[in-house]
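Researcher: We're teaching a course module on how sequence relates to structure. For the next exercise, students receive a sequence and then see the predicted structure as tokens, so they can try to spot secondary structure elements on their own. Here is the exercise chain.
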Amino acid sequence: MGLKERREREKELRKKQILKAGTKVFLKKGLESSTIQDIAQTAELGRATIYYYYPSKKNILRDILIKGLDNFFEKLLNDLRKAKNEIDVIERIIYFYINFLKRKTSYAQICCLVVASTQIPWVKNVVEDFQKAYNNWYEKLKETINKHTNKRNTEKIAKLIPVFARGLAFEYLLSKDMDKVYKIAKEFLKNYKS
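Model: And here is the predicted structure for the students to work with:
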């Protein structure tokens, strides 16, 4: 590995360190009360280092959301490529959401915090960027679903199933009862199949 590759890898590791610290701080102090200084202390870095990578906490929050979204959809679409039919697509989407939530609870929490904070002007701008990225992924999701379903159901599945799965995520965040979430998902799938 050359010097250039090593520097790129170190840069990405530093960004991950900052985003992880930003997530902790935002969840602990809220979006408005959090400062670059708080994030620097949590990351055990100097403020100047944070500013080198991110000019504001808005940029940190944006990267937390967009990178999480990209990670989610890249893995989901990869999983959906293995689907055999429409029911398999629906099951995969639902269980992918649930399993992602179990692994990335802090991401779900930060998304909820952002939704609750859209009255803050700079957060509203971050949400607009997130929505643009989501819309791009949504089109790719529809294309992938379309390969496994009849054409009339593509839009319905692409819209309704993720909404249902996000509802399961909120249920888990509120109740912390994963068994209940799985039970709701199984009941939904049973009804959908019949």
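Model: If you want an answer key for the exercise: The mean pLDDT is 91. The domain at 1-55 is CATH 1.10.10.60 (Arc Repressor Mutant, subunit A).
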